[in-house]
Specification:
Structural class: alpha/beta
Largest sheet: 4 strands, mixed
CATH topology of the largest domain: UDP-n-acetylglucosamine1-carboxyvinyl-transferase, Chain
CATH superfamily of the largest domain: Enolpyruvate transferase domain
Number of helices: 12
CATH class of the largest domain: Alpha Beta
CATH architecture of the largest domain: Alpha-beta prism
Distance between the termini: 27 Å
Length: 426
């Protein structure tokens, strides 16, 4: 297996223009495909997951011009459901493609097989499939009920009211809302449990409004889309910088006492992970918020915190590693859905933090990290999970070399992460 050994990092300093957000890139591409008119999308993230969406839309017959290498695509929208037909789509481990496409394809016409890598076939999708069946969708789980691969024999959705849990993944709610304007009647979603990652659903509803579709909501409990609405292209769309990717560099500044400014995301961000800087502020860092940038300066030491990060589970991984350098334990709450991400992140984080000398306690929805006197050098297993590789790069701030196994897994969202890390560290 390929390895990358990071030498000790003494300081983070500098400015970084963030790559585009994966979550926004894939939402905007799909909404543009469903909209009437042409949409020019700028600052797209060139990564594995966005390539999966790009390739899937092309395979399904959507007019897509341009190249992700240039971070811009022109989408000629369908003005309604995607073109029908018979298609077999391989979607890798991209949850931001598998979940919304399942709903959108069920709302159209055609016969579709959706499959992915082995881990994708272990990631639950039963709540979404059940809701779509309640709306009239015909979906078969081909191996294990509640999990991909899926066969969709699409003949449209009739609309109606569905009850769905919000605990497993906010992507299920995003998928249903995205497909709702394609249904034959009003669609009402009633959540039967607390919604995890609520800012991601807010992101979806705000983007839908940009495309002309209004969602009535009591956030976290009820969402309703009236029939008869259609998506219309806004013309040009600019993808925000990825706030999850920003977290590593901002945390690095907080740990080492340096100053890092990230541009492309700020106080007006659609992304919940932009609020991660406020957690660093609680720990003792200084934060400057601007409309489209965030600057963090380390304050000399970090305090352990007890924080509920249910709204930012990706940035919670960054906090878990930053906790190695805090005075006192850090408890991260609201992260039960770590267990159904690209890997079982609860188990993976506990195992790798323990290698570094930390004391780790896990519960159903929380993790507590007690920092070691000094982190020890270790080989970090990444479990084919991009965020494991990026988060644990911060362990090199402990004065010892850290080896990252399978560093190329960062291609899922940030292919040149380690190059950017080298530029901002010394």
């Amino acid at each position: 297996m390929e390895k990358l050994t990071l030498q000790p990092i003494h300081r983070f300093d500098g400015e970084l223009r963030l790559p585009g957000s994966k979550s926004l890139s894939n939402r905007i591409l799909l909404l543009s495909a469903l909209a009437r008119g042409e949409t020019m999308v700028h600052n797209l993230l060139d990564s594995e997951d966005v390539r999966v969406m790009d390739q899937a839309l092309r395979q399904l017959g959507v007019g897509v011009a341009g190249s992700l290498q240039h971070q811009a695509l022109k989408i000629t929208g369908c003005g309604g459901p995607l073109p029908g037909g018979t298609h077999r789509l391989f979607l890798g481990n991209a949850g931001t493609v598998m979940r919304p496409l399942t709903a959108v394809l069920a709302a159209g016409q055609g016969d579709y097989l959706l499959e992915g890598v082995h881990r994708m076939h272990q990631r639950p999708i039963g709540d979404l499939v059940g809701a779509l069946r309640d709306l009239g969708g015909s979906i078969t789980c081909l191996e294990n009920e509640g999990f991909p691969p899926l066969r969709i024999q699409a003949a449209g959705l009739r609309g109606g009211e569905v009850h769905i849990s919000g605990t497993t993944s906010s992507q299920f709610i995003t998928a249903l809302l995205t497909a709702a304007p394609l249904a034959g009647g009003d669609v009402t979603l009633r959540l039967t449990s607390k919604l995890v990652s609520e800012p991601y659903v807010t992101m979806t509803t705000r983007l839908m409004a940009r495309y002309g579709v209004r969602v009535e909501s009591r956030p976290g409990t009820l969402y309703r889309v009236e029939a008869g609405q259609r998506y219309h292209s806004p013309g040009d769309m600019l993808v925000e910088g990825d706030a999850s990717s920003a977290s590593y560099f901002l945390a690095g500044a907080a740990i080492t006492g340096g100053t890092v400014r990230v541009t492309g995301v700020g106080r007006q961000s659609l992304q919940g992970d932009a609020r991660f800087a406020a957690v660093l502020e609680r720990m003792g860092a200084r934060v400057l918020w601007e409309d489209s940038s965030i600057t963090v300066t380390g304050g000399g030491f970090l305090r352990g915190v007890d924080a509920d990060l249910v709204d930012m589970p990706d940035a919670a991984m960054t906090l878990a590693v930053a906790a190695l350098f805090a005075q006192g334990p850090t408890t991260i709450r609201g992260i039960a859905n770590w267990r159904v991400k690209e890997t079982d992140r609860m188990a993976a984080m506990a195992a790798e933090l323990t290698k570094l000398g930390a004391g780790v306690h896990t519960g159903q929805d929380h993790l507590t990290v007690t920092p070691p006197n000094k982190p020890v050098s270790a080989e970090i297993k990444t479990y084919d999970d991009h965020r494991m590789a990026m988060a644990f790069s911060l362990a090199a701030c402990g004065g010892v070399p850290i080896t990252i196994l399978d560093p190329r897994c960062v291609a899922k969202t940030f292919p040149d992460y380690f190059d950017r890390l080298a530029e901002l560290t010394s």
